[in-house]
Amino acid sequence: MGCCFRGSTAIPPPPMETSMPAVSVGEYSGLKQEVLIQIPACKVHLMDGGEALELAQGHFMIIKTFEENVSLATIIKVGDDLQWPLTKDEPVVKLDSLHYLFSLLVKDGEPLSYGVTFSEASLGSLSLLDMFLKDQSCFSGLNLSKKNNLDWREFAPKVDDYNHFLAKAIAGGTGQIVKGIFICSNAYTNKVQKGGETILNSSAGEKTGVVARESMSNKTASASKKNKINKNLKRVRKLSKMTEKLSKSLLNGVGIVSGSVMAPVVKSQPGKAFLRMLPGEVLLASLDAVNKVLDAAEAAEKQTLSATSKAASRAVSNR
């Protein structure tokens, strides 16, 4: 999948930076990681509660980990701290020439929607990104404006309605894994693309209605909205950290990273059951797979914390 992009970059990195070559990692001769696409100077906003909150800015990188010809994970990273998995059923919408909307249905809440803005200098490189996204995600292009001046703060209320729709569509099932490749069903793809286009292309009057309803909110509603935003920011940080740990764990032999929460994942029952898929199956090919890994890691973390707590209690008692 996407082999034609292997080793390429949309724009060469600055002299002080080096891209990651396709090299073997550790004792696994067939395990490799490489930067497929790198585009400088982008910004990412979280669309939440009708608002747009800046999360990160810096180089936009697509990094793939694979073993032989089997893709284990595709990761998007922006700056130093923000990253998330890119999956075959992940809805990605190109709103105009410079603005993209990535949406992930992560457990415990509605989809996290990231608004990515590229600079005018990147225009000539985005066709390569579009080609990759068409092959590696549930991609659609709307071309809402030729002026490329979309304001995420004004657009955010539409994304709330879009997220409600996506949550139901994604939960309904997306496809199947066949011979190591995740296949999205045509029904799912058509539903997401056509439904998303209808919502995101909605009239200005509908957006005004949302704003009008919000203006009637009281202090309690405002506090509730702030709490929701804080909760989703925590979800963003959790997803970024888990994505980083998953990437490192793959490079160290699927789930074994000293000192991280991923170390006990292979020892937990949910972790063992899911990681048996390797090699020969796609690890992070679908949003459902991402959530299963998050569940496994969370279960392992709880088991570890519980064991540590009991051991500490016994030590205190013995003392």
TrEMBL record:
Entries under Pfam families matching the protein: Senescence
Organism: Glycine soja (Wild soybean)
Superkingdom of source: Eukaryota
Ranges where the Senescence domain occurs: 168-319
Gene Ontology CC, one term: plasma membrane
InterPro entries: Senescence/spartin_C, Spartin-like
Full protein name: Senescence/dehydration-associated protein, chloroplastic isoform B
